[in-house]
Amino acid sequence: MARQQVKSKERVEEHGEVFTNEREVNAMLDLVKQETERIKEDFELLLSLNVFNSARMNDAVYKFKRYEDDSLSYAGIDKHRENDKVGGFDTVITRQEFEEL
Fold first, then answer.
1. Of the candidates 65, 69, 73, 68, which has an alpha carbon nearest to the alpha carbon of residue 91?
2. Sign of CA dihedral 81, 87, 93, 97
3. CA angle 80, 84, 90 (to 5 degrees)
4. What three-state secondary structure class fits 1?
5. Nearest to 98 by CA among 88, 86, 89
6. Above 80 in pLDDT, residue 74?
7. What's the CA gap between 82 and 67, in Å, rounded?
8. Exposed (0-12), middle (13-18) or buried (19+): which is 60, by Cβ within 10 Å?
9. What is the phi-psi region of residue 98: left when phi exceeds 0, alpha when psi lies from -120 to 50, beta otherwise?
10. Phi and psi at residue 81, in whole multiples of 5°?
11. Under a CB-based contact definition with an 8 Å cutoff, are residues 89 and 52 in contact?
12. In this model, does residue 1 exceed pLDDT 60?
């Protein structure tokens, strides 16, 4: 039995809600999986060639995490606050060290 693509005009207007067929969802998920695998293989090759500067990558990851934590906190979400370790690109530091950066 085919499901109706649009439930109601009001729900589309208010929430952008439409029904996406399971076949379409699975096709999109397969595409994401294929692209993720391709990117992962490329990334692993670059890692093996020592293309990345670890100090700069760690700095970038920690800066992003600080921005992410501040943004989440603003929204009332404390996603990482309970963790006593913070992971970087190729290293892990304590929460206290992270807060002191």
1. 65
2. negative
3. 85
4. coil
5. 86
6. no
7. 17
8. middle
9. alpha
10. -60, -30
11. yes
12. no
Sign of CA dihedral 73, 76, 79, 82: positive
Token couple for 35:
């692209």
Q: How is residue 87 annotated by DSSP? A: E
- Model pTM greater than 0.85? no
Q: How would you class 93 by CB atoms within 10 Å of its CB: exposed for 0-12, middle for 13-18, buried for 19 or more?
A: middle
The DSSP code for 2 is P
Residue 19 CB partners (closer than 8 Å, separation 6+): 3, 4, 5, 6, 7
What tokens appear for 9 in the block?
A: 């005009």
pLDDT digit string (tens) for 3-15? Answer: 666 667 787 777 7
CB 90 within 8 A of CB 54: yes
3-state secondary structure labels for all residues of 34-86: HHHHHHHHHHHHHHHCCCCCHHHHHHHHHHHHHHHHHHHHHCCCCCCCCCCEE
Residue with tokens 């500067």, as numbered in its chain:
53
Q: Are 60 and 91 in contact (CB under 8 A)?
A: no
